[in-house]
Amino acid sequence: MTQSRRQSARSRPARSGPAQPEPAQGANPLLPAPTRHRLTLPLLIVIALSLIPALVLAVSRVQFESAQKTVSLVMDYSALTAQANLNGIAPLDLLARYRKLGVNGVAVYEDTIATLENRAVIYKQPGTELAIKYPGQNVNPQKTYMRDLGGGNEVARLRARFTIPFQTQTIGGVSWTVWPTDPSFLPAGPNNGLINTLKAQGYVVVYRPYDSPAVKAPGTDWPDVPFLAFNDTEVIGARDPQLLEQIKGRLGKRVPAIIEFNPQKGLDELIMGQPGIRLFSINAAWQDLLTPADVSSKFVLAARERSHKLLYTRPFSTIGETETFLSSVQTGLDKWGIKIGTPVPAAYQPSTLLRWLCVLGPLAAIVLIGLSYPLVRLGLIMAGLGLLVALGLNGGQPFPGFALVAAISFPALGLVLRRNDKRDWFVATGFSLVGVLFVSALGANRDSMLGLDPFKGVGLTLLFPLLLVALSFLPRQDIRKTAYQIYSTPLKLGDILVMLLVAGVVALVYLRRGNATGAGVSDAEAKVREALQDSIIRPRFKEVAGHPLLLLGLARILPGYVTLLLLLGGVVGQASMLNTFSHFHTPLVISFERVLIGLGVGLLFGYVLVYLVTLVLRLWQGRGDWMRNAKLDIN
Q1: In percent, how much of the chain has pLDDT > 90?
Q2: 494: Cβ–Cβ under 8 A, 6 or more apart, which residues?
């Protein structure tokens, strides 16, 4: 009896503490379970409550943007005149022809002395020629001589306009004004006759003044028009704060244009506290390389997705191409419910109180990430680092700072909390969609929606969520032990190739962040993009690719670290969703449609990918156990 009991005792396993739960089916030993902290539920409640003011702000923003769907199709009058002259047509007659195709605005440059001379308002002679014509009359060949034509008094007006020291000299019995230099390109004021004619015919006029330090009081003779578009890379007075303040006072009801991809020094100070309007145009040299269909697609996209209200157009080399282009633009605008008329600029002003209430959501999210790490101290360090970096990049400003906190925390939050199976894809996506509301609520204001204050930290929104999720993979043990285990892990050639591939993909994703990217787009991809954006709201490739990777990683059908890499690839798709909403000039509804299309396509591709990979693995592994002993024979 005793002997049998001893044998029975030997057959039973020895006890070494409390029983441990059995690992879940498909569990990955490299993927530790997150910590369930006692503050998890309270922090989730804080996020849910903060979501209420975020939703209110989202509704108010949608209402504001819905009332801003009128654009003006503006034609450059100088380029129009050149085309009309080549075809023997009066410029206003050609403009009337284009008006039937949607053109309702005209951009008129300020006159120069050269244009006054071309219109035979003044007569100008270089001193070299005048000296030959009137020898012995003390003509200085290094100076320029000017007089009126047609009985006007333009020269006297020009003398009063500039700070240039003038002289008067009688030559050949005629009184000439002597300029110390050639004044051909000096700004000479508006062509009021043309502008008044255009206004009388119902056109929206955009005036384009030039800058010159020789003008005594710039801005005092600007015409009564709704919009101004400055030339070059700075506004008038950008280098002189006192003059800039004077220009601001002389704007009146004129609204300065913010030209896409052409930042102008001093513009943000000039329009501080008053409206601005976004203007889209294409460089004439670039337009010559494109087809009318290509150019029209860009203009429609600018009006639909980038909130441009002034569409600044130039004619093509032929009238026929120009008409094709304008007709295509008008059709595209009609398709998306955008009206051609006179836009009325308005400034979006969200509630400050509601924005402060929204701050609690991102703050709770990043703290919750830290508390949910297997290594809680490391998690809290990362949470603190994220807060400091986000606020530091935004100069300590709370609203844009916490918008960035939301953009780096919510894409990671779902995967830090849950990563057990494919259903957790919906959890991760749900948290990301919550995050986009906080990004919009905290980041959208007048300046960011006009493009004057772009979202800071775009690169961080792609890299920091990856870092947050990757560090949550560290097991609950001494981090020095983990570091040693990683260092001493033997690598195979396949491991190195996979790592190089992953590094290349991450670099490509980072370089192609934002709108002006560091990596180019192939012609084939550009055509696919254009075809998609003309027919639907084009989803982002990072989302279409990232969502399937996340589903495949959560399915846990691939071994070891490959699953971890797939999860990190999925984080890119989640982060891209929030990155989409950081483009505040894009209407909120458009961003939501883009994300939802990306989610639908990504989810479909994801389940197909999981099925195909499962099928391939079964076929591959079902051919025998050759993989167990497979070696590379290099002899």
Answers
A1: 61
A2: none
Three-state DSSP at 140 gives coil
Report yes or no: 458 and 579 within 8 Å, Cβ to Cβ.
yes
Are the C-beta atoms of 146 and 123 separated by less than 8 Å?
yes
Could you tell me the two tokens for 501? 């591939």
What pLDDT score does 58 carry? Answer: 96
- Residue 519: pLDDT band by 50, 70, 90 thresholds? very low
Residue 107, φ and ψ in degrees, nearest 5: -100, 120
For 614, the 3-state DSSP assignment is: helix
Please name the residues in contact with 470: beta carbons below 8 A apart, sequence gap of 6 or more.
Answer: 564, 568
425-467: per-residue pLDDT in tens?
999 999 999 999 999 999 999 988 888 888 888 888 888 999 9
Helices first, then strands: H and E counts in the chain = 25, 14
Q: How far apart are CA 538 and CA 162, in angstroms?
A: 52
What's the predicted TM-score (pTM) here? 0.82
Six-digit token string for 393 = 């990049």
Report the sign of the C-alpha dihedral through residues 92, 93, 99, 103, in that order.
negative
- Pick the closest to residue 71 from 379, 281, 324, 377 (CA basis): 281
Of 56, 53, 76, nearest to 64 (Cα)?
56
Flag whether pLDDT at 485 surpasses 90. Answer: no
Q: Structure tokens of 53?
A: 């003011």
With b for 16 or more beta-carbon neighbours within 10 A and e for fewer, the 448-476 pattern comes to bbbbbbbbbbbebbbbbbbbbbebbbbbe
Residue 189, φ and ψ in degrees, nearest 5: 95, 175
For residue 487, is pLDDT > 70? no
CA-to-CA separations, 72 to 33, 255, 303, 311, 325, in angstroms, rounded: 57, 14, 10, 6, 15
Closest CA to 305 of 457, 453, 449, 458: 449
* Residue 230 contacts residue 187 (beta carbons within 8 Å): no
Q: Which residue has the tokens 């800058």?
A: 211
* pLDDT tens by residue, 527-541: 555 554 544 566 777
Rounded to 5 degrees, what angle do the CA atoms 579, 581, 586 make? 125
What are the phi and psi torsion angles at 132 (to 5°)? Answer: -70, -40
pLDDT one-digit tens code per residue, 311-334: 999 999 999 999 999 999 999 999
Q: Which helix (H) or strand (E) holds 211?
A: none
| Residues forming a β-bridge with 107 | 76, 206
Mean pLDDT is lowest, of 13-17, 58-62, 202-206, 571-575, for 13-17
Residue type at position 215: V
Kindly tell me if the per-residue pLDDT of 67 is higher than 80: yes
Q: Both tokens of residue 124?
A: 């100008």
Residue 169 bridge partners (DSSP): 176
DSSP line for 426-444: HHHHHHHHHHHHHHHHHH-
- Where does residue 27 fall: left (phi above 0), alpha (psi -120 to 50 degrees), or beta otherwise? beta
Which pLDDT tens digit goes with each residue over 377-397? 899 999 999 999 999 999 999
Closest C-alpha to 542, from 501, 562, 513: 513
* Separation in Å, CA 154 to CA 177, 188, 217, 294, 469: 11, 10, 17, 45, 71
How many whole angstroms separate alpha carbon 571 and alpha carbon 606? 14
